């Protein structure tokens, strides 16, 4: 985007950073009050006392106070040969002095400054909503070094250090609990207000609140890499981001300003030709100029988007750019990954079958050793079981992840592997278990040594109880739901049946998932929802990608367009509804702005609208409605 285009609305749409340092509401209110008082006295002097000198002085005073920000910007724009709205307003005010309509000119500037004030207030409100989410970064931490406690700035806590957190305290670092148990309020990050139990080995996040017991945490991330720090930077990034619709408006209004100027000149000339006095002619032209300014029209979209994205962040939904809100609103197909998305955290080992002289413990120990470095939910379930049973885990060399199939490696010089049927076939392992086995339903992990099938681990999928409702709701919204999984067909179908999904693609490799998403996206807008494990390429292919349980998966939070900080999909329908509502508000806002402009513009052409009316309706009134409309989106839904 060229510098020029950006200037079209950025000159009067204060960015959040700008206003953070500059916007002082109390000062602005006071100055606005002073300007109003000056204008009132000017009107009294003008029409009641009829002292023109005093009146003019007061009008000019009003213009200076009300135009304190507008006039300098207008002249700056003039110097850069960039005729923005500030210039138009300044020009209108000066011209009004010359043609003997100073009351109008002063009113125009005052009303316009109020419109700008409204916008600043809106930005500040949104900013405050966001702060409620992120002001939570604690600045100090209690570190334990050589058995002594030091309170240090969080930036000085190194990865691997132990941090103590007392009950009621806000956790200052991302890390793993090493001592104590407690409940943690993670609402800052996930939007979920029910406290989460934590025991040694579990992850905790900076910005969340320790509700119950004393705990000690081993730091896993430096302060600037913590999840909450990342949320802050992502949301700020999102606020800077401009959506396609926004840039379209910028482009249109950039072309449109010269048109309005030309139209105004023509209107003035036309009136003059029809016999109006020069002052009357200029006045008509000015009214069209003021009526035509694209300001309220240009804030309609950014204010709505920023407001909406902030609303999402408050619920633990991180939307990384307004164009993703647009795409979400248009979503026609939702493709869901099964493991880790529909079944997060609920996978558990339900049976181990033996097909050799190995014992179940040996099979479990082998699998757990191989799975140590895998982050797949299957691996985690196997490791949990191994820990529960207290089986010993061995070192693995030549470790290898075979995406969508399993894992392999060498233990004490012997090659082992664990994975699905595909892996067994690829490695030419002689399968020892009949297809209609009695081992149990679920995801099967075949454990083998060389080409010898040792045993089979069955993992049962107990999907979240609210998943069927979520799927039903999506369908009700007219969205097609598709399940993509690398798991075996039988398990996939059982899960799909229970969830009410009738479009199932099973036994997929990561590249198959990509191809399916690609195919659907040829004629539909596809949202892909996954956990980033074995589905990152498919996420990247989708029109909009949603990472689940993002708080625990760093790669996914980076790559996805939308990150769900809470580990489940229950927010999906509301997320899409909110996107639709956001686009609705935007359309609504743009329509209001265009309607008001057209109305005021027409009145100006026919000489029915005084100058102040053009600003009051076309600018301040529209800004007010548009902003009030947009701010609703910042609320939690
Ligand atoms: P999904 O998330 O849909 O289950 P994945 O591609 O993540 O798809 O996994 C596909 C299948 O590959 C799993 O069902 C499992 O059979 C096998 N698999 C993947 N990773 C592992 C692993 N670490 N250990 C054992 N099996 C695995
Ligand atoms: Mg998965």
Rg on CA atoms, Å? 32 Å
Helix content: 40-55%
**Strand residue content:** 15-25%
Number of strands: 22
Distance between the termini: 34 Å
**Overall number of domains:** 4
> Biggest sheet, in brief?
7 strands, mixed
Overall form:
elongated
Biggest sheet: strand arrangement? 10-22-21-20-11-18-19
Ligands (ions, cofactors included): adenosine-5'-diphosphate, magnesium ion
Helix count, DSSP H or I runs of 4 or more residues: 24
Explain how this protein is built:
- By secondary structure, this protein is α+β, with helices and mostly antiparallel strands.
- The chain folds into four domains: 11-132 and 236-308 and 580-634, no CATH class; 140-225, Distorted Sandwich (Calcium-transporting ATPase, cytoplasmic transduction domain A), CATH 2.70.150.10; 317-344 and 463-565, HAD superfamily/HAD-like (Rossmann fold, 3-Layer(aba) Sandwich); 348-460, Calcium-transporting ATPase, cytoplasmic domain N (3-Layer(aba) Sandwich), CATH 3.40.1110.10.
- A seven-stranded mixed sheet has the order 10-22-21-20-11-18-19, sandwiched between helices.
- Helix 9 (227-240) packs antiparallel against helix 12 (295-314) and helix 12 (295-314) runs antiparallel to helix 23 (572-605).
- The longest helix is centred in the last third of the chain and has 34 residues, at 572-605.
- The two termini are 34 Å apart.
- The structure holds adenosine-5'-diphosphate and magnesium ion (MG).
